[in-house]
Every structure is written in structure tokens, then in C-alpha cells.
Amino acid sequence: MGDMAALRAGLAELDEVVVAFSGGADSAFLAWVANDVLGERARAVTAVSPSLAPEERADCEALAREWGLRWSTVETDELADPAYSANDGERCYHCKTSLMDALAVTEAPGAVVLGVNLDDLGDHRPGQRAAAERGARFPLVEAGFTKDDVRASSKQLGLRTWDKPAAACLASRVPYGTEVTLGVLSSVAKAESALRALGFRQVRVRHYGDLARIELEADDVEAAAAKRDDVVAAVKQAGYRYVTLDLEGFRSGNLNQALGAQ
Hints:
Layout: H1 4-14, E1 17-20, H2 25-38, E2 42-48, H3 54-67, E3 71-75, H4 82-85, H5 91-104, E4 111-113, H6 126-133, H7 139-142, H8 147-157, H9 182-197, E5 203-208, E6 211-216, H10 218-226, H11 228-237, E7 242-245, H12 257-261
Parallel strand pairs: 1-2, 1-4, 2-3, 6-7
Antiparallel strand pairs: 5-6
Helix pairs in contact: 1-2, 5-6, 9-11
């Protein structure tokens, strides 16, 4: 179990922090604790770009209002970087570099802290390397928190994010080697938003040109088949020609498997 006392002590030692706040369970938990420990010396900053789903940006604002966070946004333009748009295995490195550079010019002082947990350390995460190289700290890792620990502690604290479905930037829906463009990200965002409107909480629309591969929780696959006409209409409305449902269901980071096959 993660050590809450150690987390609080570590944040207190940093004195002033800027939490990279995406609104997911991890960064939300870290932002709440940082605010509780440091008050005015903690700021939550959300990076806004086409790779952030509009609903996630809105939820960040709502959470900040509900919890009394000192919150602001910063614009990032990773799509302007050809190395990012090329979408090789280092895409997340370039994205986090853009984020850290953007946070460096904000008026918020203090150490940049990210909601990375112990479970995140095992997957292909070049973004973590970019952040660490630029001085970011991972307080949840330092205090021994796994993803389950974050959710359990969030529930104990009464944070509504304790069971929030896992989220990731929209570019993670695009297979490596396929160019990331504004149009691609827009199609993915529209398709996922429409599927959530149909009642599906955990959604990934993997982008393969004019084909969309939908990943849902395994328990939702049968429901999606029963709503076939609505699902197809929703995804085609977002610009896809072909709509497929992945029978294996949602797997976080599954596009990283292609890197091992190269």
C-alpha cells in the first residue's frame, strides 16, 4: 500500500509544486494531496492541445472548482514538431518535452510533479524519461503508490476520480508510423465522445485510416453489439468508413506491442 505519510512529507519538502494535471485518477489524486499539504504553494496546470479530449479539459476545470485548486491552463503545440507528428516510438518523449518547456515559462514557481505511479514504470513510457531529464519529480513513485493504491486512497478521501476510467492523450489511439494530424485527433475525439454518449465509460477508438477499431471493457462488448446500428452511426458520423469492434476489449497501451515486433 502506498505510504500517504511519505507522500505528504515529500510534497512538504518540495515546498512549492506545479502539478501536471490531466484530470485522470493519478494526477487528480496528486493535485488534491498537494493542495491539502501546500495550499497556496501548489498549483495545478493543465496542458491544452488537440491531443486532449475536450471532455477531459472540462473535467479538469470542474475538479479544480470543486476542490478549490489553484488551476490554470497552458497551451502546447506538439503538432508543430515534425518529430511528434511522425509518430515513431518516441512520440511521447517529444510531447512531454513540449509540456515541460511550456510549464517552464508559466508564472507558477516550484518543482514540476507528475502523477506517475509504480505500475507506469514497466511499460514503454519515453515521456517519463523526457520529464525526468528536465527535473520533474514523481511523488507517487517515491511514496510507493501503485494504480490500485491511488484508487483506494482516492476512495477513502471521497474523491470522485477514484474510479474514473483510464485516459490517455488522443494520439495514443494512432498506430506508430501513422502521422498524427489535427484531423486524425478530431475524428478520434468525436467518435469516442459519441460512444460515451451511448453509455460506454471506458472507450478507445484506434485509428487505422478510414477504419476504426473500438475497444470497450469486456462486459460492454455484448451491449455494443446489441446497439450495433447506433454504434456504427456514431463512429461513421466522426468520419470513419469502416467500424470494427475488438472482441478482446480494452487494453491500455496495446499499440506499444508493435514496438516489440519491429
